[in-house]
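All the exercises in this workshop are built on plain-text protein records. Sequence and backbone structure share a record, each on its own labelled line. The structure tokens are whole numbers drawn from a learned vocabulary of backbone shapes. The record below serves as our worked example for the rest of this section.
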Amino acid sequence: MWNPEQYNKFNDHRTRPATDLINAIPNLQYESIVDLGCGSGHITQMLYTKFLPKYLTGIDNSEAMLTKARTDFPQLNWQLEDISHLSNLPKSQDLIFSTSALQWINNHEQLFNHLIQRTNKVMAIQMPSNFRFPAHALLRDTIQENKYFKIKLQNIVDKKPVIREEPVFTPDKYYAILNHQVTTVDIWETTYLQQLTGENPVLEWVKGTALLPVEEHLSPDEFIEFKAIYNEKLLRAYPQESNGITLFPFSRIFIVATK
């Protein structure tokens, strides 16, 4: 379901947190690097340019994203895997890196214990932490308020909702998981006041990410109806400023753990 063109409509805004994370990584020699959830590959290329590792692999579960990555960056190694299955994760990497991907995976205590055990030097992670913000809250409300959408989307995958309420832990929880396994762990949150342009920019943003599971489980006509209802809520929550800008605050959590 991933669409590189839709996702990259806001490439500058989506890349900025990854750049901030890369800049926070200790300047060490990394022989091997893996980028989990690499998407279309431009951030993986940034890692290669900065650290010049001997081995660098980008892993993603979207063939569409990897096709874009292979086209734009054919010199790098791209691998199609579902990183939600821990057995698919690579072993013994100097740097394990992931930006805007691990929020899609359940059971973060098991996941982060698994990742840090496979890290030789540094693990660097960035994830959205905006699930209480209006865009996500209104998405859940749109499902809950419509009986038909609720039936189709609330309990259809192993009796779990398509849209999870809190897929990411609080910073102190990640600290508790990692602190006894590493030499240092730096965790922080940043809220970016993103300035978007266009008639329905927040809807266009979530169409590239959070709306994908909804689209997957509705028919085309149902999805059109869902988007119309949801977009009305978004336009009220994120009104356009007099200068044509729509302000879209977006919070993210960063973790840099050094062995």
DSSP finds eleven helices and seven strands in the chain. The chain has two domains: 1-129+166-193+249-259, 132-164+198-243. The radius of gyration is 19 Å. Residues 203 and 231 are 6 Å apart (CA to CA).
